[in-house]
Amino acid sequence: MIQSTPGQQKLRVLITVKTYPIPSSKYDELVCTAGVTETGDFVRLYPINFRDLRDCQQFKKYQWIEVKASKHTGREQRKESYRPDSKSIRICGDPIKSNPGNWRDRSLYVLRNKAKSIEDLKELQKSDKTSLGIFNPKNVSDLVIQPDSSDWNPKFLAELGQQRIWENRTNSRKPPRKVPFKFKYRFHCNDKNCNGHNMSIFDWEVGALFWRMMDEGMTHEGAAEEVKRKFLENLCGDDKDTHFFVGTTLDYPTSWIILGVYYPKVEPPSLFDEIM
Fold first, then answer.
1. What pLDDT score does 198 carry?
2. Which of 211, 233, 232 is nearest to 223 (CA)?
3. Which of 5, 13, 17 is nearest to 205 (CA)?
4. For residue 143, how far is the Cα from the chain centroid?
5. Can you say whether the dihedral through the CA atoms of 88, 83, 70, 12 is positive or negative?
6. For residues 24 and 136, what is the distance between their CA atoms, to the nearest angstrom?
7. Residue 147: how many CA atoms within 13 Å on its side-chain side?
8. CB burial of residue 165 (10 Å; 0-12, 13-18, 19+)
9. Between 220-228 and 204-215, two packed helices, what is the crossing angle to 10 degrees?
10. What is the rounded CA–CA span in Å between residue 218 and residue 153?
11. Is the pLDDT of residue 65 over 70?
12. DSSP line for 60-85
């Protein structure tokens, strides 16, 4: 049992999203972590310096955790955002299995409050500050690869290093390797007001796949093409019921980004469906 102090809540969250680590002059290293509660409500947990967690606390996707957390205040007005006490993180059992392929046990929670489209989520944002959601795109036409800087901003890294010295953290891990590309999905929503979207992907698995391919000897361009192959042809293939986890950023609250991909296999029609 996690005992919460005043102002904190005990949350039970099924982890669905981890973004690629970004160095932060304020938080040292920022990983946006999100998930859903047992009633399907979305929760954002930050900051979490994931690589500095104890091994027994390093949760995986589709794994339940319990954590003490308090609502963010100040300029952070997104309704799903909580500040976790990282020391209180406790993993609750193994990740939910994929069953195999159809992900039915995951979908009981992940898709409980599924949105119709990005347009639908933007309307909810206006009414109640919604900033996280999941929806099923009508079609995904491309994954665009754009060159990007191969290193973090020098001024940014200098501020980070100064903070670590001030906090006597000279043995902190090096910042994560920066992926020298940006990846964006092109897609349309199943909504009459949709004019198409080009939306950036911040999924942890994009960076992990890119660097795994590099470590296996691929060129930068070859690794980027492998990311495109998997995230377009596999995760968005005709045999997949593709959904996007999406959210807004603190600095650009009206801009939505893709935080992760949910891709169970398409269910074959049942005998009842064929008769009807």
1. 97
2. 211
3. 17
4. 17
5. negative
6. 32
7. 2
8. exposed
9. 140
10. 25
11. yes
12. -TT-EEEEEEEE--TT---TTEEEE-
CA distance 192 to 155: 44
**274: pLDDT strictly greater than 50:** no
Q: Are 67 and 57 in contact (CB under 8 A)?
A: no
pTM for the whole thing? 0.88
Residue 154: CB partners within 8 Å, gap ≥ 6? none
Tokens, residue 217 = 């000897």
Query: What mean pLDDT do residues 175-188 have?
Result: 92
Q: Which residue has the tokens 């039915």?
A: 104
Is pLDDT at 162 greater than 90 in this prediction? no
Q: Spell 52-79 as b/e; 16+ CB within 10 A means b.
A: eeeeebebebbbbbebbbeebeeeeebb
* Structure-block tokens of residue 115: 């949105």
What is the residue type of 159? E
Q: In DSSP terms, which residues pair with 245 in a beta bridge?
A: 134, 260
Which residue spans within the chain are E strands per DSSP?
9-18, 22-24, 28-30, 33-36, 42-45, 64-71, 81-84, 90-92, 132-135, 139-147, 181-188, 197-200, 243-248, 256-262
- Distance CA(209)–CA(230), nearest Å, equals 9
Cα(189)–Cα(73) distance, integer angstroms: 33
What pairs with residue 81 in β-bridges? 44
236 C-beta neighbours (distance < 10 Å), count: 21
Average pLDDT over residues 264-273: 70
Whole-angstrom distance, CA of residue 22 vs CA of residue 31: 7
- Determine the pLDDT at residue 179: 93
pLDDT tens figures, 85-100 = 999 999 999 999 988 7
pLDDT band at 275; cut points 50, 70, 90: very low
